[in-house]
């Protein structure tokens, strides 16, 4: 099969085409004929040598895809060859066929194309585990998400709104702020023009903040939280080390937590998939959640896809078309 490999750590140009064997499913696994593959920032981090895949995962980049089941391993009862699925992958999505656990796959929601479905797994798994499970977001709470027009941000706005939360978002342009408002944010803050911490304090503070920026945002997030508020950290685009006064964390009873998705156990991801099908897939069915699409590329244009995701201008998800029969 055709795939794109990381020839060596570096910029987008190190992504190159390669021919490799089609994977064979083991017990509890399926092989998906990939129609569309999602492109995510962790892919770019892996390409740069900053985010190594787990020991038992494919070295090829790609953490999500949509397509049709091509083969099933022993013990798989839910899926049959030909079934349309989208799936969270341990790696290997930048290829014509991808291997994953059967219980990490979900049916393509009715009404969505395979192109749209390829955008769901990585963001939905990430948002649900961090906003709902770890962040304990409840209806009526004030929720602030940074990077509101990223794939994570656009998904988080819609899920939080569907749960009845009051949604606040930051973004880097007026156009991006308008997108956040159109998705259900009550307030969109252009961080280049306004202090988000002051804006949140004026609104009585955020009960929950989802942040992937880090760096100088960390102490500002503390200021932006309401008493008893929670901060969930999922990435550090501007650095993971900062000086922070924990006395305020103590006196205001704040909670700081965070997680990454890829290193979690297969069982934890399977349980997340079940929760998504139970709680998030109905949001899609009733029109409360829809992937926001930025652009698409071919598999051979993976370097251009990485340049796009590393640019400041994109809004929503970036995907690559792999199988031109779909």
Features:
single chain; 326 residues; alpha/beta; Quinone Oxidoreductase, Chain A, domain 1; Rossmann fold; 2 domains; seven-stranded mixed β-sheet; six-stranded parallel β-sheet; 15 strands
SSE topology:
Layout: E1 2-6, E2 15-19, E3 29-39, H1 41-47, E4 64-72, E5 84-88, E6 97-101, E7 105-107, H2 114-117, H3 120-134, E8 142-145, H4 151-162, E9 166-171, H5 174-183, E10 187-190, H6 196-202, E11 206-211, H7 217-224, E12 225-233, H8 246-251, E13 255-258, H9 266-285, E14 293-298, H10 302-309, E15 317-321
Parallel strand pairs: 8-9, 8-11, 9-10, 11-12, 12-13, 14-15
Antiparallel strand pairs: 1-2, 3-4, 3-6, 3-15, 4-5, 5-7
Helix pairs in contact: 3-4, 3-9, 6-7
Question: What would you note in describing this structure?
Answer:
This protein is an alpha/beta fold and 326 residues long. The mean pLDDT is 96. It is globular. 49% of the residues are buried. It has 10 helices and 15 strands. Strands 3, 4, 5, 6, 7, 14 and 15 form a 7-stranded mixed sheet that branches. A 6-stranded parallel sheet has the order 10-9-8-11-12-13, sandwiched between helices. A two-stranded antiparallel ribbon has the order 1-2. The protein folds into 2 domains: 148 residues, Alpha-Beta Complex (Quinone Oxidoreductase, Chain A, domain 1); 135 residues, Rossmann fold. The two termini are 17 Å apart. The protein is 30% helix and 27% strand. Helix 5 links the parallel strand 9 and strand 10. The longest helix has 20 residues.
């Amino acid at each position: 099969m055709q795939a794109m490999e990381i020839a060596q750590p570096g910029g987008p140009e190190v992504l190159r085409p390669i021919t490799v064997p089609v994977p064979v499913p083991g017990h509890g696994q399926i092989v998906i004929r990939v129609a569309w593959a999602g492109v995510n920032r962790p892919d770019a981090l892996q390409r740069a040598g900053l985010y190594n895949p787990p020991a038992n995962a494919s070295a090829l980049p790609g953490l999500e895809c949509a397509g049709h089941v091509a083969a099933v391993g022993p013990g798989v009862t839910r899926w049959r060859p030909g079934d349309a699925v989208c799936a969270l992958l341990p790696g290997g999505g930048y290829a014509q066929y991808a291997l994953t656990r059967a219980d990490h796959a979900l049916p393509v929601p009715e009404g969505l194309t395979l192109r749209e479905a390829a955008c769901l797994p990585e963001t939905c798994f990430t948002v649900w585990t961090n906003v709902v499970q770890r962040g304990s977001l409840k209806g009526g709470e004030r929720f602030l998400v940074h990077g509101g027009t990223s794939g994570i941000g656009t998904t988080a706005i819609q899920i939080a709104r569907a749960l009845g939360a009051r949604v606040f978002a930051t973004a880097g342009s007026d156009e991006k702020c308008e997108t956040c408002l159109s998705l259900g944010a009550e307030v969109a803050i252009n961080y280049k023009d306004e202090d988000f911490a002051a804006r949140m304090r004026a609104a009585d503070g955020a009960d929950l903040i989802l942040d992937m920026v880090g760096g100088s945002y960390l102490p500002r997030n503390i200021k932006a939280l309401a008493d008893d508020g929670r901060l969930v950290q999922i990435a550090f685009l501007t650095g993971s080390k900062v000086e922070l006064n924990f006395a305020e964390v103590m006196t205001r009873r704040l909670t700081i937590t965070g997680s990454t998705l890829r290193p979690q156990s297969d069982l934890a991801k399977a349980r997340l998939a079940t929760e998504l099908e139970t709680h998030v897939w109905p949001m899609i069915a009733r029109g409360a959640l829809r992937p926001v699409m930025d652009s698409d590329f071919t598999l051979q244009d993976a370097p251009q896809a990485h340049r796009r995701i590393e640019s400041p201008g994109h809004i929503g998800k970036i995907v690559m078309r792999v199988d031109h029969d779909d």
